[in-house]
Amino acid sequence: MPVVTVAATKGGVGKTTVAFELAAALDGVLVDLDWDSGGATRMWGYDPARYRTAPLLDALEAGPLGNAPRPRQRRHQPALVPASPDLAASRIDDSLVGDCLVAWTKQWGDRYVVVDTHPGANPLTDGAMQVADLVVVPIILGAREMDALEGMLRDFAGYRLLLVPNMVPPSPPRRYVERLATLAVGIPVAPPVSEHRWIRRRARRAAISLQPNPGKAVRKASQEFHQLAEAVEKACG
Q: What top-level class would CATH report for the domain 3-236?
């Protein structure tokens, strides 16, 4: 099944939420390569400090011929391969990351693999992008975010990309909408995800797209994430 890497050169664009909800909506395996404490691993409810082992780091060091890390399962959550703070100091190169991801997809079977990455350039992100069938790029309609997107599109012109307008306000600035249309020539753009301000304030464990008995606001957000999942499936063919 496809490897979908969620990446952005700039932080603060909602990358982790997009990866988390996308993995949930696709019923996939979420591989968290973002070692920061505010990432998908802690959002899921896993605290690496409570464990002596780091399954993801151990599996990367074992290489593609070793066993794939076993995804953790929890109701109303995507299956998760949790990150470790030790990833920040690891010297694992990009080719090893890519080889491991390809090998693990075969062991995990018929499931999408969604990879969340650390913002900016680093070997873990580079390896996940190099083997991705699709690179999902969340974008914010703002001046600095548009500048970062322009540089990313220039640097990764050879990759299969899907742009995701994220945290879009009810009345988005017209100049940034027009700039996005100019930058995205020849690149597919997914249906936008609205600015749901309550998401940042919500200490959640259940994925929005898998939330049982959702209210009106959650239903709207869930519908948007499912539409994003459909766009990913279409882009992956």
A: alpha beta
Query: What radius of gyration, in Å, describes the C-alpha atoms of the chain?
Result: 17
**78-96 exposure pattern, b = at least 16 Cβ within 10 A, e = fewer:** bbbbbbbeebeebebebeb
Distance between CA atoms of 226 and 127, rounded to whole angstroms? 27
Domain ranges of the chain: 3-236
101 vs 112: CA distance, rounded Å:
12
Contact 3, 101 (CB under 8 A): yes
Q: Would you say 56 and 69 are in contact if contact means Cβ atoms under 8 Å apart?
A: yes
Q: What is the pLDDT of residues 40-92, one digit of tens each?
A: 999 999 999 899 899 999 999 999 999 999 999 999 999 999 999 999 999 99
User: Rounded to two decimals, what is the model's pTM?
Assistant: 0.95
